[in-house]
Amino acid sequence: MKTAIKAALLLSALGLAACNNPDRFGDGSGVTDPGGAYGSGYGDGSVSQGNISDPNSPAYFQKTIGDMVHFVVDQSTLTPEATQILTQQAQWLTSHPNYTAVIEGHADEQGTREYNLALGARRASSVQSFLISQGVSGNRLRTVSYGKERPIAVCSAPECYAQNRRAVTVIAQGAGS
């Protein structure tokens, strides 16, 4: 009986260890997540970001160009600052055709879940339309709305709300289809 329990514990531990392999789907070099939505971002070993000083790297895209734009309350209209950032994103994406992008739309915690999902979708769509208007092929872009489900600032203050009203362009290697 004790042997069966020990064997079950050993198998459970091995099973859990197998689930904790961040590189189980490959070498990790094909995944870039500058927005940090799929991990902790830099330094977690699962993301290939490159060097921030290399203009061809995802790290440069995220930190120098900026992968995020913000919106006014209940709006999906691009601000002049957002337009400036997205123009640079479009130039980078146009000159790096081996990358695709997922545009994440987010909202702050105000409003219902359904309303915020719709608002996040409009924000992501607004960014996608702008990038397409700047020459980025539509088959390289897709959108997703997280509504208020993935805040970057967790508090009920206007400063936090402002940070969470955003669209994030998450790039990945691989040509669009």
From TrEMBL:
<comment type="similarity">
    <text>Belongs to the Pal lipoprotein family.</text>
</comment>
<keyword id="KW-0732">Signal</keyword>
<comment type="function">
    <text>Part of the Tol-Pal system, which plays a role in outer membrane invagination during cell division and is important for maintaining outer membrane integrity.</text>
</comment>
<keyword id="KW-0472">Membrane</keyword>
<dbReference type="Pfam" id="PF00691">
    <property type="entry name" value="OmpA"/>
</dbReference>
<keyword id="KW-0564">Palmitate</keyword>
<feature type="domain" description="OmpA-like">
    <location>
        <begin position="58"/>
        <end position="175"/>
    </location>
</feature>
<dbReference type="InterPro" id="IPR006665">
    <property type="entry name" value="OmpA-like"/>
</dbReference>
<feature type="signal peptide">
    <location>
        <begin position="1"/>
        <end position="17"/>
    </location>
</feature>
<dbReference type="InterPro" id="IPR050330">
    <property type="entry name" value="Bact_OuterMem_StrucFunc"/>
</dbReference>
<dbReference type="InterPro" id="IPR006690">
    <property type="entry name" value="OMPA-like_CS"/>
</dbReference>
<dbReference type="InterPro" id="IPR039001">
    <property type="entry name" value="Pal"/>
</dbReference>
<keyword id="KW-0131">Cell cycle</keyword>
<keyword id="KW-0132">Cell division</keyword>
<dbReference type="InterPro" id="IPR014169">
    <property type="entry name" value="Pal_lipo_C"/>
</dbReference>
<keyword id="KW-0449">Lipoprotein</keyword>
<dbReference type="InterPro" id="IPR006664">
    <property type="entry name" value="OMP_bac"/>
</dbReference>
<protein>
    <recommendedName>
        <fullName>Peptidoglycan-associated lipoprotein</fullName>
    </recommendedName>
</protein>
<dbReference type="InterPro" id="IPR036737">
    <property type="entry name" value="OmpA-like_sf"/>
</dbReference>
<comment type="subunit">
    <text>The Tol-Pal system is composed of five core proteins: the inner membrane proteins TolA, TolQ and TolR, the periplasmic protein TolB and the outer membrane protein Pal. They form a network linking the inner and outer membranes and the peptidoglycan layer.</text>
</comment>
<keyword id="KW-0998">Cell outer membrane</keyword>
